From TrEMBL:
This is C2 domain-containing protein. Residues 1-12 have a biased composition (Polar residues). Transmembrane segments: none annotated. Residues 32-157 form the C2 domain. The lineage of its organism: Eukaryota, Sar, Alveolata, Dinophyceae, Gonyaulacales. It comes from Alexandrium monilatum.
Length: 370
């Protein structure tokens, strides 16, 4: 009834109707009508919800493997079914969902801590759910002094893991503070050396594309590490992927380093991961070529076919050129032994890889942005 309209009724009073709302003129004896009750006093505003002392995000884990894995085990249930328990002061405050059949679970689950006692450490226990219970895959902890002032955003190494390099990624936001910046896959550093002095490093150059650090001794690299906080350190096994404007060629980068007293280098983090490799039939072609490195403790992949395993693997489970194979079916060894173990394996076998964090299939997943 969008239009105004007037009608006369028997008492001579007019009823005015407008857009569904009505106002009726009071009758002549309105004075005799009881006065309307006074409106009740409004309720006081509720107090704003108190910000929790901590907001903890369990992001994901990498490098883990099944707790009861045995070398060359061939089973469809070859990956762990993992969940994480968050513990504060020894008490479990959150349990994540279980992610089935995955070596790199991503939970991205939050929990809150309303009150925080003095010097209470946080623990993160990763467990593998079996038919008859659960087994520990690894445990990480962080002391109160390392998060209560500014929070934390990074990786914690898992102790008691089946793989040497296993980590869990967590975020800890403290009330009233911004979450710290997370880890970067690469960063630039400027270093200087004195004339007739070395930079104090040794490299593995077998992939012909990078300089992988295998030793850091006295020199500019060690001096840099003594000045900067731990999360900025240049670490053994990290990759140098650029020296000044030279990149993509190991020998050319080393020559550039040796020729200059001051250099800007790009350091790319080394990350470790466990994948389940679908080997197929034993002694069938691997579809990979390896660098000559008989004395190395890892086998370097020089080229890899996109058929076979890679055709069916998820991005972060693929094998890439430049990957270092650290173990096969839980067994370590020299490069030649690792390749032999891979060749004689069959079906699905777990292998542990080391690779640059900026590997095309790794960068986003390593930071768990998916």
């Amino acid at each position: 009834m969008g239009n105004h309209c007037c009608q006369e009724n028997g008492s001579g009073n007019a009823e005015i109707v407008d857009a569904g709302a009505s106002v009726v003129n009071p009758p002549e004896d309105a004075a005799t009508q009881p006065e309307p009750e006074a409106a009740a006093d409004p309720e006081p505003d509720a107090e704003p919800e108190k910000e929790p002392k901590l907001v903890i995000t369990v992001v994901g884990a990498r490098g883990i493997r099944e707790s009861d894995w045995t070398p060359f085990k061939n089973s469809e249930a070859s990956k762990p079914d993992c969940y994480c328990e968050v513990r504060l002061g020894g008490k479990t405050i959150h349990t994540t969902s279980t992610i089935d059949d995955c070596c790199e679970p991503v939970w991205a689950e939050e929990c809150s801590v309303a009150e925080l006692g003095e010097n209470q450490a946080l623990e993160f226990a990763i467990l593998d759910k079996d038919l008859v219970g659960s087994e520990s895959v690894g445990m990480a902890s962080i002391q109160a002094k390392d998060f209560e002032a500014k929070g934390f955003n990074g990786e914690l190494k898992l102790a008691d893991a089946k793989v040497d390099q296993a980590y869990i990624r967590v975020k800890i936001k403290v009330a009233g503070k911004d979450l710290p910046a997370g880890p970067e896959p690469k960063f630039a550093v400027t270093l200087t050396r004195e004339k007739d002095k070395s930079y104090g490093v040794k490299f593995n150059m077998r992939d012909e594309r990078t300089l992988q650090l295998v030793e850091i001794t006295d020199g500019p690299f060690a001096t840099y590490n003594s000045i900067w906080p731990a999360h900025k350190h240049i670490r053994v096994h990290d990759f140098i992927t650029r020296v000044n404007k030279v990149s993509g060629n190991s020998k050319a980068m080393k020559d550039e380093l040796v020729a200059n007293l001051e250099v800007e280098i790009e350091v790319t983090r080394c990350v470790y991961t466990a994948i389940v490799y679908d080997r197929g039939e034993p002694h069938s072609p691997l579809g990979m070529e390896f660098a000559e490195a008989k004395t190395s403790d890892f086998a370097i992949v020089k080229s890899v076919s996109e058929a076979g395993h890679n055709a069916n693997a998820k991005d972060h489970g693929k094998i890439c050129t430049g990957d270092r194979i650290i173990s096969v079916g839980g067994q370590k060894g020299k490069a030649t032994d690792l390749v032999k173990n891979l060749e004689k394996s069959s079906g699905k076998v777990q292998i542990v890889l080391a690779r640059p964090a900026t590997c095309a299939v790794r960068s986003e997943h390593w930071q768990y942005k998916n």
